[in-house]
Amino acid sequence: MSLKIIGIGEILWDIFPGGRKLGGAPANFAYFIKNLGQNGLTASRIGNDPPGTEILDSLKDIGLDERFIQVDSKYPTGTVVVKIKAGGQPDYIISEKVAWDFLEFSDNWKKLSREADVICFGTLAQRSLKSRRTITNFLKLSGNNVIKVFDINLRQNFFSLKTISQSLELATILKLNQDELEVLKNFKGFPHNSDDIGFCRKLIGIYDISLICVTRGENGSLLVDKDRHYDHPGYKVIVADTVGAGDAFTAAMVIRYLQGGTLENTSIFANRLGSWVASRSGPTPELDGEIKGYL
To answer: In this structure, which long-range contacts are made by residues 259-262, counting pairs with CB atoms below 8 Å and at least 24 apart in sequence?
Structure first.
């Protein structure tokens, strides 16, 4: 029986130079979970406007359930202007006071929370007090046995030490990139350790986290638990853009974690999918025969 694996937070339109594409880390994550054989679901909020209606249509087109997408009568559907820099790295301009800043802890979300097997969340959708409270309540209602993946996703100035600390207290797994790791190292109140593995182990001890993953772009990843670690050098690809690659990595990592995979096996699987997505344009490319042969 497939597991209910939920991405909660922002859903939006990514506006690329060549057009727009469905985006937001929770939706990207759910898309890849679905393509990896589990029940990937997105919990978010759109405006009562044409872009919101088009998001619902797009979710149907890629096979995602739209039942947990709320519709806001006051605030518009979110957008992000994406500029691709050298090496395919994205630069984001994120619109503010949009529908996903006002997530409601509705009755069907409460039911969904109780039924969840895995919940993935980040900091961006917690930039507003309203959505932060809803996400926190969603996580707490789900219970202690649910795997909670904190995919930190630090964007612009939409995060704080308080939000990060509170999220870490709820997390089973922490996923972040190398730049985000350096931000955490420089926060007052966090353990000071220039060594990545040592710093991760301190976080594991303080917050009782089961696994930490640090993605390193073209240089692969580092996975750390309380006893072991594994460095993966990454797969070399011609990068189109890296939007969605981290979400694909997170989805693959979660699937292998649920399957009891070793750190090495998990790293191989996640890096393979993440690098493939980076070689394609947009956050949710259709999986072709090439990548399916590896998975």
So the answer is: 262/230
| φ, ψ at 226 (rounded to 5°) | -70, -20
Question: From CA 70, how far away is CA 100, in angstroms rounded?
Answer: 9
Asked whether residue 86 carries a pLDDT value surpassing 70, the answer given is: no
Assess contact for 253 and 175: CB atoms under 8 A. yes
How many Å apart are CA 81 and CA 90, to the nearest integer? 10
Give the integer Cα–Cα distance in Å for 92 and 279: 19
pTM reported for the whole predicted model? 0.94
Parse the chain into domains and list their residue ranges: 4-292
Side-chain-side CA neighbours of 275 within 13 Å: the count stands at 22
Domain 4-292 in CATH 3.30.1330.40? The answer is no
Q: What is the mean pLDDT of residues 188-216?
A: 90
Closest CA to 155 of 191, 190, 183: 183
